[in-house]
Amino acid sequence: MRRDPRTNSTTDRTSCPITPSLFLSGADAPLNRALMTHKGITLIVNATLSLSCPTYPGVECVRVAVPDLPTARLSEHFDRVAARIHNNQAGGTLVHCAAGMSRSPALVMAYLMKYKGVTLCQAHHWVRQRRPFIRLNAGFWDQLLDYEKRLYGKNTTERKMQCSLEVREERNMKY
Length: 175
Hints:
globular
């Protein structure tokens, strides 16, 4: 990992496979055209405010312009992004944010709950097993809890992240 001068965040050059056709990364992976071709990526979900979407032939980019702040309403994009991932039959999907630690993992967990039928704890474990350094901010965790309740009629965990060792408790910290 290295510090990205554009975002002042730590990024990882690798994309982590979540399913055979779904990948999670920081900001560097979508800039690697050879990697995108090798993984068969035909859809990029860009969950950053200002990083541009690369333009590659046959690759569509969906923008989710939400800051990585606990007060940001990422949940407004859960259904739309999950449906786009699910309906991308043409190839692989890469979901990324600046560091691949908070926004993009939250979007991937929403997809896993909606289309793979798993609980929030199961989705969190699934993603964390494949990308161990994820750290959702507390606001996104709360939004995922609300989404789980909407999908399944109940929550399978508490408001505090109990299916993980880590959560950002800082409610107003900028990332």
